[in-house]
Design brief:
Shape: globular
Number of helices: 12
Number of strands: 2
Order of helices and strands: HEEHHHHHHHHHHH
Distance between the termini: 48 Å
Structural class: mainly alpha
């Protein structure tokens, strides 16, 4: 009994600055940005849908490498006044100026990645014309589309609606991989996320499941903050406009 009391006493100062919301203890960083519950379906799926479309088109291995091109291009385009943005969420691209958007497209072309992005993301831009990534394509390009591409978007959404599905896990892994690659994410060697490459075996090993859980927590913490900071304009538009295009049911 005394040991339990002593333990509680020792731990209390550590959690004293946390705020309790329901059953959750919210750390100071999240309190400073007016913490809200982050929804995978309502908020994060629209923000990471571009990664899912790339994986769907090119597969997990090539998709992971190709996913680096756009964030790296945007980061290079803003290097004179870095904003600390990872450029992983769709909404983060609203921070770019007109000139920075032009530079991002130019850099994407130099990396020989523009045509691949065009093939994967064109349906999204066509059916969601106010998407923050629409600056990647001109109006003439947007006409090269057919109605079958809407079905592709629906199939991709269905595959990632379960956050623990293989498809959803790999787009979250890609988001974290971008952070590692651009040097904005560093972890201690004694945490599960340090074994990040093991996620490639998900869900067939226990280690891969542990890494996947760490990836989900990281996505919530880092990109959840971005979603709150950038607002809900894009996620709200994505789902509302989707209903206008054709009502989708996810059971």
């Amino acid at each position: 009994m005394d040991n339990g009391q002593n333990f509680a006493t020792r731990r209390k100062p550590v959690l004293l600055d946390h705020q309790r919301i329901g059953k959750r203890l919210i750390p100071p960083l999240m309190q400073e940005i007016n913490y809200q519950e982050i929804s995978w379906g309502k908020q994060l799926i629209p923000e990471l849908i571009w990664l899912a479309l790339i994986n769907n088109r090119y597969g997990y291995m090539k998709g992971a490498e190709l996913a680096l091109a756009l964030p790296k291009s945007a980061e290079e385009a803003t290097k004179n006044h870095p904003m600390g943005t990872w450029f992983v969420t769709v909404s983060s691209y609203t921070q770019l100026s007109i000139e920075e958007k032009k530079k991002t497209v130019e850099l994407l072309r130099r990396k020989n990645a523009f045509d691949q992005y065009r093939a994967a993301l064109l349906p999204l831009i066509y059916f969601y014309p106010t998407c923050p990534l629409s600056f990647l394509f001109d109006l003439e390009t947007k006409k090269e589309i057919d109605s079958g591409d809407l079905e592709e978007i629906k199939r991709v959404l269905e595959s990632i609606f379960d956050r623990r599905s293989v498809e959803a896990t790999f787009i979250q892994a890609n988001a974290v991989y971008i952070g590692f690659t651009v040097g904005k994410l560093v972890v201690s060697p004694d945490v599960s996320l340090a074994r990040f490459p093991e996620v490639q075996y998900y869900p067939n090993t226990e280690v891969s499941k542990q890494v996947a859980a760490s990836i989900r927590a990281t996505v919530n913490t880092i990109f959840g903050i971005d979603v709150i900071k950038d607002g809900l304009s894009w996620p709200t538009y994505f789902w509302n406009h989707g209903l206008e295009l054709e009502k989708c049911n996810f059971d």
